[in-house]
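Um, can you check?
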Amino acid sequence: MATHVEKLYWPKEKITKGELLDYYESVSRYILPYLKNRPLVMRRFPEGIEGEAFYQKEAGLHVPPFVKTVKVHHEERDISYIVVQNVKTLLYVANLGSIELHPFHSVTSHLDKPDYMIFDLDPEKIPFRKVVEVAQGLHELLDELGMPNFCKTSGGTGLHIYVPLEGRYSYSQIKPFAHQIALVAHQRMPTLTSLDRKPEKRQKRVYIDTLQNWKGQTAVCVYSVRGKPHAPVSTPLLWSEVKGDLDPTDFTLRTIPRRLAKKGDLFREVLKRGINLAVCEKKWEKCHE
């Protein structure tokens, strides 16, 4: 049951907790395929975006019977995660103040095998149009390798590019290949990009982050709201939309339902047929002979 729905989660925009719950209910059929069977890390904002925020992995001791959980073994300990299987559970986690939803890249039946490869383009003091330029360069490279690729806003200042894998390969197979691709992208765009993890060493560059391609890592879910001003949403894009005048603040809790009604789920291919890694690696070798 929803509680404190009148609480202002975005005071400046006058967006309440109730409006957040209404949003997640309205987009549930679009977001659920990306949450089902995946351990979930919640980023909770119990007092709204101006209050304290924290990441929560543990499901907690008092989970309702209708909420599915799964225990995942980590190096230090086992963690019991919530798995969002239906609208009721989605609204349960949103009612906890979980503005942001960060699912695993793999499902419980094959936790060692991701369903997609991720390139996280993270800018450091550089205009967003430069992030777009890097995204288009990486898109071109992935196309050359015959790797279908799909772009979404991060809901912040970056962009995410996903490559479907269909859970066919292990993280240990995927991570080094993703790094090789990032290395070539950096070689092609040396003044725009960086592979250095330290922000102070990548000023005025776009960091091509491939470190998320590892077991237990998460990324903000497509259609998840972010705990930032204007209530932005991580939104899938057509590649024709990834251009200089792209403004990620256009995609918010209040605009996405209309966009979905018009365009449908632009990310659906991410969960469908994955790449043939051997074929892509052969193309890679030919390109770099």
Remarks:
- The longest strand covers residues 116-124.
